């Protein structure tokens, strides 16, 4: 109810009250009151309409979205014994069936609606789990009109998200590299929409899940999904999750769109320098953030005024190193994707995408293709193409970390083992001398390195087999 409505109602009830008590207003006041009364009737005729209701279950909350033709005044409150949530919409009508909505994966047992006071709507949710409600109105966007959003935040998690809180540590005491996989958009946010209403959020989740299953099979890698179903995760929440999973890399998977259907090809983005600089400022403004982040660089630091300059320098260094890593891994992934799809741009592009703004986690955004291009939209929906794309992304990630293994990881230990058993040929070296020095036979040395002749060149790497 608007403030104006309240004032009008107050006036009308005062008018009624005065009549009941034999107090008469002057004729002009009466006329005004009558006019206002008519205005009110006019207002109630233009009630808001609930055109549709959508439900998005997520691992930590369920989102209910009421599609409206105009904003509505509302109230949300809980009742217990049994647990229910009541959503009252003032001056509204509902023109959709709520009984047929799928409630799978939600804490809602049943939804009922009723008309209240002739012109209001009451929606009652019978709950199977305790929830903390929160509600807000959303203004129209490209996809939807006015909306009322009611989130049921779970007090106890219904389904635990399948993500590691700690990277897997291998028997040798070395850890896995954690790759945070972010499927763009989700739930209320469909992302770009292509021919035949194909939605970006759907194809990118399918590709993300394939990347996850491939990485699970790779020794030395642990994948961590940022979202696992059709629900929305805020952009900041995505980077926070990546940090919580102690990710070594975040890849955000998207599909591009353009108003023209011709553009096609894949591209890879890293954060822009400008985005990095403004993010450094934001982190510094929030001293708790900075202390946490700098703590990763030097555990002894706390952030007060005299540490600010130092913090700024350290944060800047962290950000610069992260961005340089993002560009490096981005280029390798881009090159690998080039094996399965045409590239939109030859080099990693840079933009201030929010999801790339972790100061300490190298992050890349992959535009797998143009969903607005009919042939790429068709590809993106095909499971075999999704597998191809996923394999090329995983190959790019592996290629990067095999060359640049992170200290303390299984990949680093394996690389060290490989190089420890190598001999780099120097001037004057002969096969027999190297064999003798390593107490093996020339034959063993030849076999281990698949040598066809005994000619060596300076700088050649020879694998030394264990005798
Ligand atoms: Zn997108």
What does this structure look like?
The chain contains 12 helices and 17 strands. It has 467 residues and is α/β, with parallel strands linked by helices. A 6-stranded mixed sheet has the order 11-10-12-15-13-14, with helices on both faces. Helix 1 packs across helix 2, helix 3 (200-217) packs across helix 9 and helix 7 packs across helix 9. The longest helix has 30 residues, at 308-337. The chain is elongated and about 100 Å long. The N and C termini lie far apart (86 Å). It binds zinc ion. Zinc ion (ZN) is lined by residues 184-185, 191-192, 200, 254.
Descriptive keywords:
elongated, binds zinc ion, six-stranded mixed beta sheet, Aminopeptidase, Immunoglobulin-like, 467 residues, five-stranded mixed beta sheet, 17 strands, disordered N terminus, 12 helices
